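1st attempt posting a full record on here, be nice pls
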Amino acid sequence: MSFVQRDEVVSSGDATEVFEPRHTVHGFQYVRVTRPGGSVDPVSLTMRVVATDLTPTGTFECNDADLNRLWAAARWSFLGNAVDIPTDCPTRERIGWTGDYQVFVSTAALMYDVLGFSRKWLQSVRDDQLDDGRIANFSPDGRHIKRNLTHRLAMMTGSAGWGDAIVHVPWELWRAYGDLEVLAESYEAMNRWVDWALDAARTNRHQSRVERSPEPMPHEAYIWDGTFHWGEWCEPKPRDADGNPIDTMKTNPYAWFMADKGEVGTAYLYRSTATLAKVAAVLGHTDEAQRYAGVAERVLDAWRTEFLLASGRTSGDTQAGYVRALAFGLVPEGLRAAAAQRLVELVAAADGHLTTGFLSTADLLPVLADTGHAATAYEVLYQRSSPSWLTMIDRGATTIWEDWDGIDDKGTAHDSLNHYSKGAVVRFLHSHSLGLRQDEGSVAWERFTIAPVPGPLEWATGSLETPHGRISVQWSTDDAGFHIHAEIPVGSLATLVYPDGHQVELGAGSYEASRP
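the predicted structure (as tokens):
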């Protein structure tokens, strides 16, 4: 294993001298300290956790020690990257990639109070927004792309799933905390980003569609395919005959760069435009809300026309594509069951493994469970061979890796070993294993559902500090049945859904019951 970080310190030799870095952080699991010509007393070294002082708000624990370790790894991974801004990793780049936080923000809000932390970062995102409306890939942008449009990174700025953070992050914060200001202060930037993306869709066509038809079809005005997208980043790599990973980005970067990523781009264009319509409505901008809602419907129709077959299959036919389509509401109600069944088939074809990447992995397990395939969701969660989360845990991970084989089966390390985005899987532990999820349309947890999906678990317990107060849930199963205890804060209403489907409406207070 090569060392990513190396520090050399020269001191005077004074026994009372203390060295402590003040302007940097070092992410590590193990550290080797050498002192030429002398020994080092381990007692003389103090390791300090350096992170923004976030208030813990969420807990989770269950009877499975491995899932508890996974939850802790995701928590440590985020905390190690919450150093003034949400960084991608504390060992290498240490920059605030917009795509990373867009993926993780809803999970972060289940663990810590991230409202102030996130609003501070969003100010940097707005400051870095290009004059044409594009959102930088990372903020704060030390390369000042908005002032250097000839930089090679400028042509890679404006990607779906990354720039959409300016819409998605404030919306998730609004849902979690009910802070209207978080929407108001980013509203103009949201408008500029969505308008730029809509214009990019209208004025650019991917070469594959040009070859299909010199003249664009009417729906293509809403297909966002002709500008740069990172796409479904970091999907598990295929293997050659000897089992070595094949990285097409390195072996054929031109083909990767030029690949049609219109399905991803158009899906995010729909979600951001539809979300912006909701933001406008919340802020009282009725005309803009109606306008963006209408545009969102046209983008949705375009996505269905271009990428959805009458059978419910997508043209790309990938796990990621089905997860995104189901999570974003792109599939009509009558075809959702077929799309979900195809997703299950693709998981089975991969021997119970996921093949999703950066953008869709967080939604994979919730989508499976919500479409009636909880057993498949738990099969993927409990997978012990790569690619899987528990492979990381089995190979000694205490934080989440960037690559599924961050430490491969030969013990060789690859890429970052502290990259929190794939840790968004623990949202499933809160929302389904524990069963605590906020209702659609609810703000600040004023209305939520407690619907445990036990799967192979025997018990789970967890809590969340909300603007209305503390919610707690504890459930267990035994030969006598299902037992649950819940605490509902004043100002909130809950619906308890037992595993057999029986529902009970709960007001504020303490609730304890059993059901055969």
